[in-house]
Amino acid sequence: MKYPFITAVLLTACTIAPAQVASHAPSAPATQAKMPSAQVAPMQVTGKPVARVNGAVLTDKDLLREMYAIFPYGKQHNGFPKSQEAEIRQGALEMIIFEELVYQEAERRKMTVPAAKIDQGEAAYRKTFESPQQYQAFMQTEMHGSEKALRQQIERSMLIDQLLKQEVDNKAVVSAAEVRAYYDKNPARFQQPESYAFQAISILPPRTATPEQAKEARKKADDALKQAKATTSYEQFGLLAEKISEDDFRVNMGDHKMVPADKLPPQVIKAFQAMKPGEVSGLIQIENAYTIVRLNAHTLAHKQSFQEVQAQLKTELQKLKYEQLRVNFAKQLRAKAKIEVV
User: To the nearest whole number, what is the mean pLDDT of the chain?
Assistant: First the structure.
C-alpha cells in the first residue's frame, strides 16, 4: 500500500461512525462465523490518551485504528478475542508510538513533501471511498470538515514512508555477492535428503479391528488396488483417492508432495525401490492398514544449486535485514525520546 498510515485512519472511521460510512468497511465472508460475545473484548473509544511521545498525545482512537490493522476481523465482531486482546493491544501501542517517533524525526530533519505529491495522495485516497457521500461523511466525522486536516494527515503519512524508505528500505537491499556469500558459508542448509513425491490411497480399519472388520478391510483394499492399477495419470489416481481413500490426504488428491525417505515406513521405501515414476504399487500393509502408492518423482540426496535457491534466498535475507534495521532504528529513536504510556 502506497500510503499505509493515512489509509489506516479509515479503519477507525468505519468503527466510530458506522451509520455514516459503514458501507466502506469490508464485509465478512459469507462463511465467517460470528464469535460468541463471551469470547469478545469490546473496546470503547473516548479519545483519552494512551501514550505521550515527547509531549505528543496518542489517543485510544489511534490505538484502535492500529488494532484493527493488526486484526481486521475485530470490526466485524465489534471487538477482539479476549485471549488475544492484550497481545493485539500491546502490538498496536508499540506501532503507533513508533509511527510518532518516525514522524517527529522526519520533522526534526526538516524533511518535506512537495504539494503536488500531497495532491496526488489526496486524489488517490478519495478513490478508496465508494461514493462522494461516503467521503463527505468521513470528512465530517474524522476531519471535522477540514480539508487542511486531511492534507496534514496525508503529509504525515508520506513523511513517515519517506524516512522509513531512507533509513530501512533502501538499506535493506541485499547484493548478489551477499547472497552468494551466505550460500557458501551455510552449505549444510542446502543439503537435500533423498525424497519421494507420491500419492496414496489408504484403507484404515479400526485399530482394534475384529476378524470380520479386518476381512472387510482387506476386501476393500483389494478392490481399491484394482481401481488404482487401472488409472493412467496423476489426475485419475488423485480423483480415485478423493473418492475412496480413508486418510487425510484424500482431500488433496492423495498427494503427499515430496517426503524425505527417512520419514517414510520401510515397507513404503521397499515398494518405491522397485518402481519408476508414474507406476502404482501393489498393496502395502502397515500394521492392520493398507496403502497403495503412486510414485511421482524420486530425488536422490543432493545439494541445491545456487541458481535453484538464489531468488528465494535473496528475498529471505532482505526480509531479515529489513526487520533488523527497523528494530535498530526504533531503538535509536527511543533512546533519545521521552515516552509515557498512560
Answer: 88
